[in-house]
Amino acid sequence: MHLSGVLLSLTFLVPPAWALDAYGAAPAHDLSADVPPFVIFLAVVFSCLSFHVVVQIPSGLLGTWLGRDRTAGVCYVCVLAVAGVLTIVLVRGVLEVDGVAQLLSSWADFMARGSLALAAYVWLSRRLRAWPVRRPEDLEAAAS
Q1: Global pTM?
Q2: DSSP class per residue in 12-64
Q3: How far apart are CA 140 and CA 30, in angstroms?
Q4: What CA–CA distances, in Å, run from 123 to 31, 60, 76, 106, 127?
Q5: Three-state secondary structure readout of 78-99
Q6: How many CB atoms lie within 10 A of CB 46?
Q7: Distance CA 78, CA 4 (A)
Q8: Per-residue pLDDT tens digits for 64-101
Q9: Minimal CA–CA distance to 73: which of 59, 61, 63, 83?
Q10: Are 102 and 91 in contact (CB under 8 A)?
């Protein structure tokens, strides 16, 4: 999960659209602004951290478990399906986004950022997976 967390944080080098809108509305030299620029930066860091903890880790673990005996593509689809549901819960429930257009925009932004990191997690988990040990009795039973 550390690799996918680092990849997720790297995707936030391109700030979300809502952060750019908020940053443009709060100039740095205006002390009477409702939201200072450093708070916008903290909101981006919090959204990255909350997505990693609430969506990325559970969907990576549950999705790879659901797709454990299947191909990597099916495993990745399982991970994305779980991530899609958890992202809706995060965006609607935790971040309290209202309106269908804003909800869809936030969901798509989080899913686009998370899909790259989750692909790396699925790839790495498939590479590091321990293969079952074959005992001689199992080989003889399979041959007969």
Answers
A1: 0.72
A2: TTS--HHHHHHHHHS-TT-TT-SS-HHHHHHHHHHHHHHHIIIIIHHHHHHHH
A3: 78
A4: 47, 11, 9, 26, 6
A5: HHHHHHHHHHHHHHHHHCCCCC
A6: 11
A7: 16
A8: 888 877 888 888 899 999 999 999 988 888 777 778 88
A9: 63
A10: no
